[in-house]
Design a protein that fits this description.
mainly alpha, elongated
């Protein structure tokens, strides 16, 4: 098996691109601004909390190739999902789809999650396993990649 090429696209750029793509679906349907606002607020919290934790632990939030993690952060929201920043981004995109009131606006969310899951996270997991070995393997076995039960 040949090694995959390093990921060079910042995930936040993929999220922004998905958000811009949602505009192609226009408005219509039945928007739910209160639900969208609540989801956006919760998602922003899920996105920001691990950034603060990573900074406190002196490790990078840059997931691209070459950015070496200095610490394995497993507490806080990282005890619920191994990828809270991506969960937060997906939640913000979902909130925008809810605000737009169009089911079709969820398509870029699906594309974002698919790309992050199959390209970005797989590359990150290889790096974390190589850096933290058994500690990361234990964490990976006990905490889901996204949300849900392990």
């Amino acid at each position: 098996m040949t090694p995959r090429r390093p990921v060079r696209v910042p995930p936040v750029a993929v999220c922004v691109a998905a958000g811009v793509a949602q505009r192609a679906f226009g408005r219509g349907g039945r928007p739910h601004p209160i639900a969208a606002s609540a989801l956006a607020a919760a998602s922003a919290g899920v996105l920001v909390a691990p950034v603060v934790a990573f900074r406190r632990h002196g490790t990078t939030v840059d997931p691209r190739a070459g950015a070496r993690p200095a610490a394995l952060v497993t507490g806080g929201v990282n005890a619920i999902t191994r990828n809270p920043m991506y969960v937060g981004m997906a939640g913000l995109l979902t909130a925008q789809a809810v605000a737009r009131g169009r089911v079709a606006a969820l398509l870029p969310v699906v594309a974002f999650v698919g790309w992050i899951d199959r390209v970005q996270i797989e590359a990150e997991e290889r790096e974390l396993a190589a850096t933290f070995g058994p500690s990361y393997d234990s964490y990976r076995r006990s905490v889901p990649r996204w949300l849900g039960r392990r």
